[in-house]
Amino acid sequence: MDLTLFGEVFLTLLVITDPPGMMPIFLALTGPLSARDRNRAAWQAVALALGVIVIFAVAGQTLLAYLHVSLPALQAAGGLLLILVALELLTGKADDPGQQATANIALVPLGTPLLAGPGAIVATMLFVQGASGTGDYLQIGGAIVAVMLTVWLVLRFSGGIVKVLRPGGIEVLTRIAGLLLAAIAVQLIADAIGSFVTTYLNQH
After folding, report:
1. pTM for this structure?
2. Taking a C-beta distance cutoff of 8 angstroms, is the pair 191, 82 a contact?
3. Could you please report the per-residue DSSP string of 56-85?
4. Whole-angstrom Cα Rg for the chain
5. Core-most of 2, 39, 72, 147, by most CB within 10 Å?
6. Lowest mean pLDDT among 33-47, 83-97, 143-157, 179-193
7. In sequence order, which residues have a C-beta less than 8 Å from that of residue 21 and are 6 or more positions away?
């Protein structure tokens, strides 16, 4: 059995989801939470991301066409969402655990748009479009599950780092994570604007 497609999908999605890069953002968002809540946030985020990617893999083109939404628009929306979260981290408004429910953190921004963001969605949709036969679909599905399992393992065992960093370290990490998130958000919006401009120029 040729597992080339499995490897290609796995490596592509692993690079896009970037588990090591996700770790500081995850720790910054879940730093004030208990270990149990942090672990719950990890699996909820991964479960949501898996669900979103699978839905877009199966019905992404149809869904976007029905809503008359382009992929750049989805990208820009993800960028705006991340900017709001980045501002919270940078201003310290996300530090109070009483203001944040575990499920909220897990769903937005961890599950989407960080894990199941425009990059992962578009890549998966392209792989599905190029697939032929049940074997290819099974390989793509297996690769998606393997990537999400890898991400979950990284997030699940990142708790040990919290004990080393202590509250002061977590606060520094939160500011750095906010800056990284802001940069990711700006890049998403810039790419979306570039796509809009290219599409406009091609039409005229």
Report:
1. 0.82
2. no
3. HHHHHHHHHHHHT--HHHHHHHHHHHHHHH
4. 18
5. 147
6. 83-97
7. 180
